[in-house]
Amino acid sequence: MHVRKILQNVGRVVGALFTVFIIIPFAGCSGTASTTTTTTTSALTTLDGLPNATSPVVDATSGSLSALTTKAAATVGMILGTTTESSFTSSSSLAACEMFNQTKRNIASAIEGDLIQCYVAEIATANTISGVDIYDGDYHIFGLADSAGEAPDHVKFKVVKDSSGNITQFEMFACRSGSQEFYLNQTISNNTFTMSEKSIESGHGSHEFSVTGTVNSDGNFTGTKVLTESFSGGSSGNNFWGSSTLEQTTDNISLTGYNAGSFTDSQSSCTGSYSNIVAAEAQLLDGNASTENYDIALLALGDGAVKGSFSGTSNCSGDSGTWSDSGTEGWNGDTRVVDSTAAASYITAVSSATLPSASSSAPSIAFSGSEIYNCLGTEIAELAVNQQNLNTACESLNESHSWIDCWNATGGL
Q1: Which of 302, 280, 254, 294 is nearest to 58 (CA)?
Q2: Is 192 exposed, middle or buried (0-12, 13-18, 19+ CB in 10 A)?
Q3: pLDDT tens across 61-93, in order?
Q4: Which of 3, 67, 310, 319 has the greatest count of CB atoms below 10 A from its CB?
């Protein structure tokens, strides 16, 4: 088996990992699946009015989605909700495809915390329990009855408010069979928003994510929102890990990160390793008309550029040795082809960027300090989980975040 084919399979395993991450915390949300974030104009006093990791970045002055600057001319771009592997061909830019992949993966991580928040908001609004005030600043514990065993079975959370009634903290833990799998903590202090979450699931890998930024009274970000992730996973000799930092404004996305791994071909027992490092910047297009009923799937990447370094080793027959490639490539966001003219400003921006170092081993992701929960405590109530509704609710979300095999789709470098 050639190295290219092995890495294609590894890429698909990466995609499967992030699918699992998204399914689990969605358990408590009813209705249809959506990457929609609803924002309100009221004070941040209820869970369903809190900011999300995927809440929009708006003009600090007008509060609108209008771009602060225009650096490129793409008008449609690569839409997050509809762009798939078939959207790229042998004439497409490999850099554009990889930037799209990395952006979707980072946002997929952001959605996980949003779905946990949806879960708790559902408890608060649809499962009111007599005598229980979930906004009293104390921890509350609930159980989940899921016959299919695909959802957490035990959750603990608290919501803290200030003297004015505004929420300043939302914290949650989730467990399965007595073992902690998830932690989420969101705080708002003087309009400074911070959210961190970790997911550690046996057999599926580990993942941690954080969001920082300034939010307004509508729960939207102003200025720059920063999203950071780390992940690791794999099995049967195919292991992968990586990290990235994404900075989002009203009209621009900058991303720096890497993914790396080791692989084994079960047929020939050959082994190898790889490392892909990128610094990228792209135009951000927003198909939403307003922040009401905001849909993250309508975001799109326009023109942009990637500075990258790609390397690896292999002892597989026919591909033995080492390989490396590096350089800068810009693209047209509407056509997805290499276009140094349309991407001129982005090429300039990334050309001077310092690429991060790729770790030679997976990051250590573990619950620590106040993140640790022993999964004990008396449950106030047990809520039923309808697995059929779960499958329906998560279907479109999972589909919209499928990993794209860019090397195969574009024909490589």
Answers
A1: 294
A2: exposed
A3: 777 776 544 445 678 899 988 898 899 999 999
A4: 3
d(C-alpha 245, C-alpha 303), whole Å: 19
Could you please report the per-residue DSSP string of 281-332? Answer: EEEEEE--SSSTTEEGGGEEEEEEEEEEEEEEEE-STTS-EEEEEEEEEEE-
Q: Which long-range contacts (CB under 8 A, 24 or more apart) does 233-236 make?
A: 233/13, 233/14, 233/17, 233/204, 233/205, 233/206, 234/10, 234/13, 234/205, 234/261, 235/13, 235/203, 236/264, 236/266
CA–CA separation, 125 and 46 (whole Å): 10
User: 302: Cβ–Cβ under 8 A, 6 or more apart, which residues?
Assistant: 72, 74, 75, 77, 78, 282, 283, 284, 285, 333, 334
Task: Single out the residue of 205, 33, 30 nearest to residue 125, CA to CA.
Answer: 30
Apex CA 4: angle with CA 206 and CA 256, to 5°?
50
Supply angle C-alpha 40, 42, 44, rounded to 5: 90
How far, in Å, CA of 179 to CA of 177, rounded?
A: 6
| 3-class SS of residue 96 | helix
Residues 211-230 pLDDT 10s: 999 998 888 899 999 999 99
* Token representation of residue 315: 């002892």
In terms of phi and psi (left: phi > 0; alpha: psi -120 to 50; beta: otherwise), the region of 313 is beta
Check if the beta carbon of residue 78 is closer than 8 Å to that of residue 333. Answer: yes
pTM of the predicted protein model: 0.81
Give the span between the Cα atoms of 161 and 152, in whole angstroms.
27
DSSP per residue, 13-53: HHHHHHHHHHHGGGGG--S----EE---SS-S-SGGGS--T
Question: Tokens 């990258």 — which residue?
Answer: 308
